[in-house]
Design a protein that fits this description.
The chain is an alpha/beta fold. It has 15 helices and 9 strands. The protein has helices at 15-25, 42-45, 64-76, 88-91, 96-102, 127-134, 152-177, 187-193, 196-199, 239-249, 266-277, 282-289, 302-307, 309-313, 346-355, and strands at 6-10, 29-35, 55-59, 79-82, 107-112, 181-186, 221-225, 231-235, 296-298. The strands form 2 sheets. The protein has a 6-stranded parallel sheet, with helices on both faces. α2 links the parallel β2 (29-35) and β3. The longest helix has 26 residues, at 152-177. It starts with 5 loop residues before the first strand and ends with a helix.
Length: 359
């Protein structure tokens, strides 16, 4: 889908390379500029799943010759991404002003936790830090310390996905106008933005108190422990699904569940369901709700999920252990090639730049 689009990705951690992988999965040519040395960290020397579908060149951006090569790459590109603290790329001589002098059509993507401006812009942080300050973490659990799925909500949902969407919007605009732009993708911005759906429920539910909003408080929107210590997830929000849920459990006539949208009834209903689900192992409940629209599912480990019939039928996990590209299209897609070794494509990339007169 993005064939003919070239993205230059400067090596970073977490959400920035994930966004690059997503763009590569969609067909863009993504060239990742790795550091010439991975330093003391062995993980940085090994191939990363997040580099799949990309080409690699290793450069020392403090070297005049390698800096010249990096600028040539920028001149050849439609977009570039970086995930360093604000000001680092400017000090390297590769900030937006320089990049746009080299290539006015360039879409310059910047991935940070706090954004390019504001009192915390230079402050360190991680996934939970940004979620906490944005207010999103407040709803991560009903009655235990908040804890979201690691990296998924902040780094990926609020970070990488917003960077990728911003890059796509910038690329579309550049095609129409010939003008590049800077994409300031901050995890704290994305996390706040993603709360819009929950906040839209505010007139009907108390979104200012944990366990009182529509999605973090009801008995029908939480996980329950089973007799074997495993868990099932329940989220039968709509009335027809809630009715089917109760019918399947044989609880349709239980007065504890008569007013499912009244927050005052949620604690008692939750207590009743806690005891009910604790009476049988997770496999029992999974079998009971199999094929049902009651919106109940067992909480699987990643290995178990790979073996789930639906997951397997869609081919979501490849033989290499990585997830298949998403979303899917009705046109033929070429599977991404394996992650390259650090600097693997350097000679070929420099030769191409030379042939184009950029070096």
């Amino acid at each position: 889908m993005l064939g003919g689009i070239r993205i230059i990705e400067f090596e970073a951690l977490g959400p920035a390379p994930f966004a690059g992988m997503l763009l590569a999965d969609l067909g863009a040519e993504v060239i990742v500029v790795h550091r010439k040395s991975g330093g003391e960290n062995p993980a940085k020397q090994s191939r990363s799943l997040l580099d799949r579908g990309k080409r690699s060149i290793a450069l020392d951006l403090k070297s005049p010759d390698d800096l010249h090569s990096a600028r040539a790459l920028i001149r050849s590109a439609d977009g570039m991404t970086e995930g360093l603290r604000p000001g680092v790329m400017e000090r390297l001589g590769l900030g937006p002003e320089v990049a746009h002098r080299l290539n006015p059509r360039l879409v310059y993507g910047r991935m940070t936790g706090w954004g390019q401006s504001g009192p915390r812009a230079q402050q360190a942080g991680h996934d939970l830090t940004y979620l906490a300050l944005s207010g999103a973490l407040f709803y991560a659990s009903q009655d235990s310390p908040p804890f979201p799925p690691p990296t998924m909500l902040g780094d990926i949902g609020a970070g990488a996905m917003y960077l990728a969407v911003g890059m796509l919007a910038g690329l579309m605009n550049a095609q129409k106008t010939g003008a590049g732009t800077v994409v300031d993708a901050a995890i704290v911005d994305g996390a706040s933005h993603m709360m819009a759906l929950l906040l839209s429920m505010g007139p009907h539910f108390d979104i200012g108190a944990r366990g009182r909003s529509l999605l973090d408080g009801p008995h029908w929107s939480r996980c329950y422990a089973c007799a074997d210590g495993r868990h099932v997830a329940v989220q039968c929000l709509e009335p027809q699904f809630h009715a089917l849920f109760l019918e399947t459990l044989g609880l349709s006539d239980d007065p504890a569940f008569a007013r499912p949208y009244d927050p005052e009834t949620w604690p008692g209903a939750t207590q009743a369901l806690t005891a009910h689900f604790a009476s049988q192992p997770a496999a029992h409940w999974a079998a009971l709700f199999e094929g049902s629209d009651a919106c109940v599912a067992p909480v699987l480990t990643p290995d178990e999920a790979r073996r789930d019939p639906h997951i397997a039928a869609r081919g979501i996990w490849g033989a290499d252990g990585g997830p298949a590209p998403a979303p899917r299209f009705d046109t033929f897609a070429v599977p991404p090639h394996p992650p390259p070794a650090r600097g693997q494509d350097g000679a070929a990339i420099l030769s191409e730049l030379h042939d184009k007169g950029l070096l």
